[in-house]
Each structure stands twice: as structure tokens, then as C-alpha cells.
């Protein structure tokens, strides 16, 4: 695994290069010479966090309460069964 370091300017000029570099390992992004962000492939992120995505995990995420989500109401009524 190799670590690639890019400045914010380099990232802005060549996002494709940064995305391709994540195949080999994390990409450190610097602001004024200091590490500020890390770009990972999604597979590496999942491995790192050992995360399995399911609805319960998604709803428990910090900030989930700020997501607007209003599912339509469903009315369920009993219907007679046809046993013939």
C-alpha cells in the first residue's frame, strides 16, 4: 500500500488522478502544506470502519435527524379471504 499526497490545488486540477491513486492506498490532501483530508476508496473505508450498511445504521448516523424524509402513509385494511 502506498500513500499519495496532493495539495488542494493539485486535487482540483486533476480529480481523476486522485481517484485512481486510491487503488494503491489513501490519498492525503493538504491545505497550505498541512494534511487536511484523506481520500479513500469506498472498499477501504468499509474495511477500515468494518461497516455494514443497513437501515438501522443509517438512521443512527450523526446528522440523520437533519435529513428530510416523509414516506407516504399506507393504510392497511382487512379483506375477506376467499376459501373456495
UniProtKB/TrEMBL annotation:
**Which Pfam family, giving just one, matches this sequence?**
PhdYeFM_antitox
Q: Which domain of life is it from?
A: Bacteria
Annotated TM spans: none
- The UniProt annotation puts the region (Disordered) at 1-20
Concerning InterPro entries, the annotation shows: Antitoxin_Phd/YefM, YefM-like_sf
Q: Give the matching SUPFAM superfamilies.
A: YefM-like
Q: Where is the composition biased (Polar residues)?
A: 1-15
Similarity-based family: Belongs to the phD/YefM antitoxin family.
Q: What does this protein do?
A: Antitoxin component of a type II toxin-antitoxin (TA) system.
Record-given protein name: Antitoxin
According to its UniProt entry, this protein's organism is Mesopusillimonas faecipullorum
Amino acid at each position: 500500500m502506498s500513500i499519495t499526497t496532493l495539495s488542494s490545488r493539485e486535487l482540483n486540477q486533476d480529480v481523476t488522478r486522485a481517484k485512481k491513486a486510491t487503488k494503491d492506498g489513501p490519498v492525503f490532501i493538504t491545505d497550505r502544506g498541512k494534511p487536511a483530508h484523506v481520500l479513500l476508496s469506498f472498499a477501504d473505508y468499509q474495511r477500515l470502519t468494518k461497516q455494514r450498511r443497513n437501515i438501522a445504521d443509517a438512521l443512527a448516523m450523526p446528522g440523520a435527524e437533519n435529513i428530510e424524509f416523509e414516506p407516504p402513509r399506507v393504510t392497511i385494511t382487512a379483506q375477506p379471504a376467499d376459501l373456495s
